[in-house]
């Protein structure tokens, strides 16, 4: 049923730390690797080794330049995947019931055998979290690695989403946002976690931790080298200097 | 947004067909020979069905299209499918009774007309519901879809039906439809993403630091998102297309109607007006998609 649950028992999701993300794309690569070989149909690529590469990914890493008014620009790497919104517009628009939000843990999933590939859910998502698989012709999206987190076979430490497990700088955290004592809830409280595009009223579960403030140089005056007067030259250089001055 | 030909064709033709069904259901006069009634109704139903079939061409899995009838509680797309089928069935029975008995069962006609209104409304709500495309997210969107369905439907019905000098009505309907579209265009110009407070700063949450600019895309080539929602090639000829839409979709049909009305020429000429209007509406619908800005473009360097 594509109506949204009133509330979900758990609210599983990710915290992404924009302060520590180094933009290595390892999370996207491990996501692709895990999700192309496990569970549902593969995550297809078209012309993977050719000139016109294209394919479905569940996680993408953008890189932004942010320029304060009074300081040099800084770089922020920005991983983006499904935010498993409380008010997920991608769920309610689905005509077949393929797109759904689970009442037990809040994960937004697509039942591939019900999906007709109309693409309306991708239109409804402001974050670009859904991509049509170019070969399977069904909508693909982050499953929060539902086949890992509830696995009884994998070692305990692997029962987290592939992106979280692989992140070398621990910029990604997984947990239950309904539990105020969980690591993710505490991180959001301590670091002031933010929602993306709150004006779209999707109430995303995933939160982003903003970059910590940069230390600023004490003086903003231009370096001395540029402002000091050029020393006078003599001899041949002095003659050349004078000759060039005359030329204008 | 990427202007998919199948969806453009679907909304224009099914709009005209449903406009005709609406008018025939309300009792638009048609010469009472069973064969002609069959032909006129076939045009109305055929355009609607052709549009619906075309819309399944853009599906990844058309063989599962029947599943789209299940989620009417929440999904406008699902409601549209149901409304279209119910309307066509009601209209089909109405026409069969009409052909068999020579008289029109009024209640059934009214129900088919109501169904046609609901179908066009649900179609327009598929677009109007999307907060991610502020230019579409407006009450004017259903008005425009309804206006054009009625206008183009009227042209077809007046060409094939029998009536006494009602060309004035046709001109009025076309003028009203374009009046609504004019308001829609004016509103769309004032309601771009930035006007609604969405920017790369809100998309990334980094606005508190300073101005945000995309430095590097996540991927070197195109992907589904950039092809579908960050599509801008279609805007290249926007000005020309807008004029073309207005001239073919409004001015030419209104002029033909005026000539027919004033000179007493056969109303079959209205068919030319109808074809012209439908061609103009294809251009109008192309722009509806091509000019629409989607929120996802903010992650791909759009301001």
UniProtKB/TrEMBL annotation, chain A:
Keywords for this entry?
Answer: 4Fe-4S, Iron, Iron-sulfur, Metal-binding
Residue span of region Disordered: 202-235
Q: Which Gene3D superfamilies match?
A: 3.30.70.20
Give a yes or no for keyword Isomerase in this entry: no
Q: Does the keyword Iron apply?
A: yes
Q: Where is the 4Fe-4S ferredoxin-type domain?
A: 12-42, 73-104, 106-135
The molecular function GO annotations come to: 4 iron, 4 sulfur cluster binding; metal ion binding
From what superkingdom does this record's organism come? Bacteria
Q: Could you tell me what this protein is called?
A: Fe-S-cluster-containing dehydrogenase component
Q: Give the species.
A: Hoeflea halophila
Automatic annotation (TrEMBL), chain B:
* Top-rank taxon: Bacteria
An annotated GO cellular component: plasma membrane
User: Listed GO molecular functions?
Assistant: dimethyl sulfoxide reductase activity
Q: Where does the sequence pass through the membrane?
A: 7-28, 34-60, 81-101, 107-128, 140-162, 168-186, 241-262, 268-288
In Swiss-Prot or TrEMBL terms, this protein is called: DMSO reductase anchor subunit
Keywords of this protein's UniProt record, alphabetized? Answer: Membrane, Transmembrane, Transmembrane helix
Q: Does the keyword Membrane apply?
A: yes
Question: Does Membrane show up as a keyword for this record?
Answer: yes
Q: Pfam families in the record, alphabetically?
A: DmsC (PF04976)
GO terms for biological process, alphabetical: anaerobic electron transport chain
Q: Spell out the InterPro entries in the cross-references.
A: DmsC
**Species the sequence originates in:** Hoeflea halophila
């Amino acid at each position: 049923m594509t109506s949204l649950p009133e509330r979900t028992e758990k609210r599983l999701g990710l915290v992404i730390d924009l302060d520590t993300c180094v933009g290595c794309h390892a999370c996207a690569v491990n996501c692709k690797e895990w999700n192309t070989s496990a569970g549902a149909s593969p995550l297809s690529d078209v012309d993977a080794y050719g000139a016109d590469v294209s394919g479905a990914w569940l996680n993408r890493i953008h890189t932004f330049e942010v320029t304060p008014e009074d300081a040099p620009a800084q770089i922020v790497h920005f991983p983006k995947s499904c935010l498993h919104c409380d008010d997920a517009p991608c769920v309610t628009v689905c005509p077949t019931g393929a797109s759904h939000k689970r009442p037990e843990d809040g994960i937004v999933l697509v039942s591939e055998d019900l999906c007709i590939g109309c693409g309306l859910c991708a239109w409804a998502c402001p974050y670009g979290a859904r991509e049509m698989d170019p070969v399977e012709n069904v909508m693909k999206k982050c499953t929060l690695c539902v086949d890992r987190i509830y696995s009884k076979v994998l070692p305990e430490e692997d029962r987290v989403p592939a992106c979280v497990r692989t992140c070398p700088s621990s910029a990604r955290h997984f947990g239950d946002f309904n539990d105020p004592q969980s690591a993710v809830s505490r991180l959001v409280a301590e670091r002031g976690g933010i929602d993306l595009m709150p004006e779209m009223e999707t109430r995303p579960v995933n939160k982003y931790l903003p970059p910590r403030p940069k230390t600023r140089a004490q003086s903003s005056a231009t370096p001395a080298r540029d402002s000091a007067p050029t020393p006078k030259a003599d001899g041949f250089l002095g003659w050349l200097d004078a000759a060039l001055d005359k030329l204008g | 947004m990427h202007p998919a030909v199948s969806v453009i064709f679907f909304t224009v033709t099914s709009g005209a067909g449903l406009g005709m069904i609406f008018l025939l259901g309300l009792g638009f006069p048609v010469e009472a020979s069973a064969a002609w009634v069959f032909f006129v109704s076939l045009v109305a139903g055929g355009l609607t069905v052709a549009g619906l079939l075309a819309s399944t061409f853009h599906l990844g899995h058309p063989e599962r299209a029947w599943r789209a009838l299940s989620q009417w509680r929440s999904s406008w797309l699902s409601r549209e499918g149901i409304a279209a089928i119910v309307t066509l069935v009601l209209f089909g029975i109405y026409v069969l009774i009409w052909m068999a008995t020579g008289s029109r069962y009024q209640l059934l006609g009214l129900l088919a007309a109501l169904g046609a209104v609901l179908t066009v409304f649900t179609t327009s709500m598929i677009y109007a519901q999307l907060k991610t495309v502020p230019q579409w997210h407006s009450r004017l969107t259903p008005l425009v879809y309804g206006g054009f369905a009625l206008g183009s439907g009227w042209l077809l019905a007046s060409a094939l039906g029998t009536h006494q000098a009602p060309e004035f009505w046709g001109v009025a309907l076309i003028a009203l439809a374009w009046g609504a579209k004019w308001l829609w265009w004016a509103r769309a110009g004032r309601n771009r993403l930035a006007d609604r407070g969405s920017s790369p700063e809100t998309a990334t949450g980094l606005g508190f630091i300073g101005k945000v600019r995309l430095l590097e895309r996540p991927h070197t080539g195109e992907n589904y998102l950039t092809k579908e929602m960050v599509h801008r090639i279609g805007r290249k000829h926007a000005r020309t297309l807008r004029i073309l839409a207005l001239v073919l979709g409004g001015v030419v049909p209104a002029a033909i109607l005026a000539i027919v009305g004033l000179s007493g020429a056969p109303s079959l000429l209205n068919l030319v007006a109808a074809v012209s209007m439908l061609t103009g509406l294809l251009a109008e619908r192309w722009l509806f998609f091509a000019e629409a800005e989607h929120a996802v473009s903010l992650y791909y360097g759009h301001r």
